[in-house]
């Protein structure tokens, strides 16, 4: 059942390369010079508010939306899109199956169409936690179960990459949780994943890499870990804020300082432990009344990114 391991490379294989992609719908420039690369085994999130060009980008690489300019290459770049898409599993619309057929019957039908062995049906129903419900008619499923069946269907041909557009939209908290757990499970089995979402916590919880889009433009692209791994900032108060600012302005670890409502915010560019800062200031004759070290969450950083442009 497992596919043979063909190559064992130390460098991650490229699944998809996107270069300077543009899409214009008349006057609307929906995707602007977007470039990024998808490597095997990672989980990528395209994160951005509604209308930022996520679905358009997915539509282009899946060959259902025509690009205006730019390039995208699947795998080694030698495979044509039609062939390449046979190794891609994608759900970009609301799942739709035959309502009066069971989960199993619906998936067997997909197997017939795509020339896939029926063995895969139970295997994939298991992956999405629907094996016990295989004999239930599709129409009896909750939205979350319908979405899970769609994921099972997209996995039938053991794709190299699974692409999902807003996979948890419209689901209740339990359904959201189940879908996220399933995505993480599929990733742990080695399938590369690309998902579009307007939900920060979704990307933070599920993805290893993120492309932040706003109005069709990339604001950030890189690992989720790195966007989180900033040095943070101090929130300080003393009886001599003016002197405090002067002292810290010249410190090597300090990037910038802001003052608001009597509090001094000290943004760091390199590590600076609270106890070291406290000792340093004490030795210079400054007694702190207030000292808190904070770090921006992905959400705050995302809001900063999107506000500052
Ligand atoms: P997202 O998926 O991030 O919400 P979309 O890719 O759907 O964003 O849309 C990006 C922009 O392109 C929006 O301004 C949207 O109104 C516009 N757009 C999307 N599809 C079409 C279309 N078929 N015709 C005209 N404009 C479109
Ligand atoms: Mg969309």
From TrEMBL:
SUPFAM superfamilies: P-loop containing nucleoside triphosphate hydrolases
A GO term for molecular function: ATP binding
InterPro entries: AAA+_ATPase, ABC_transporter-like_ATP-bd, ABC_transporter-like_CS, P-loop_NTPase
Protein name: ABC transporter-like protein
SMART domains membership: AAA
Classification via PANTHER family: ABC TRANSPORTER, ATP-BINDING PROTEIN
Keyword list, A-Z: ATP-binding, Nucleotide-binding, Transport
Residue ranges constituting the ABC transporter domain according to the UniProt record: 16-240
């Amino acid at each position: 059942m497992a596919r043979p391991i063909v190559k064992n490379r130390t460098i991650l294989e490229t699944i998809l390369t996107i270069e300077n992609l543009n899409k214009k719908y008349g006057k609307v420039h929906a995707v602007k010079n977007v470039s990024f690369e998808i490597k095997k085994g990672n989980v990528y999130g395209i994160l951005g508010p509604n209308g930022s060009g996520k679905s358009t980008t997915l539509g282009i690489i899946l060959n259902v939306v025509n690009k205006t300019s730019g390039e995208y290459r699947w795998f080694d770049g030698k495979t044509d899109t039609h062939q390449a898409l046979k190794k891609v599993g994608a759900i970009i619309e609301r799942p739709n199956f035959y309502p009066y057929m069971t989960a199993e019957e619906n998936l067997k039908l997909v197997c017939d169409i795509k020339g896939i062995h029926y063995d895969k049906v139970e295997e994939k129903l298991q992956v999405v936690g629907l094996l016990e419900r295989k004999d239930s008619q599709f129409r009896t499923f909750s939205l979350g179960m319908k979405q899970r069946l769609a994921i099972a269907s997209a996995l039938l041909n053991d794709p190299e990459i699974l692409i999902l557009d807003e996979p948890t939209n419209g689901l209740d908290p339990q359904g959201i949780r189940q879908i996220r757990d399933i995505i993480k499970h599929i990733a742990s089995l080695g399938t590369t994943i690309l998902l579009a979402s307007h939900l920060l916590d979704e990307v933070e919880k599920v993805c290893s890499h993120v492309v932040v889009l706003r109005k069709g433009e990339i604001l950030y692209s890189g690992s989720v870990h790195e966007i989180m791994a900033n040095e943070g900032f101090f929130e300080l108060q003393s009886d001599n804020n003016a002197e405090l600012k002067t002292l810290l302005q010249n410190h090597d670890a300090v990037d910038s300082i802001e003052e608001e409502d009597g509090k001094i915010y000290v943004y760091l560019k390199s590590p600076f432990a609270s106890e070291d800062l406290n000792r340093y200031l004490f030795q210079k004759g400054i007694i702190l009344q207030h000292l808190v070290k904070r770090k921006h969450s992905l959400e705050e950083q995302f809001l900063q990114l999107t506000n500052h442009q």
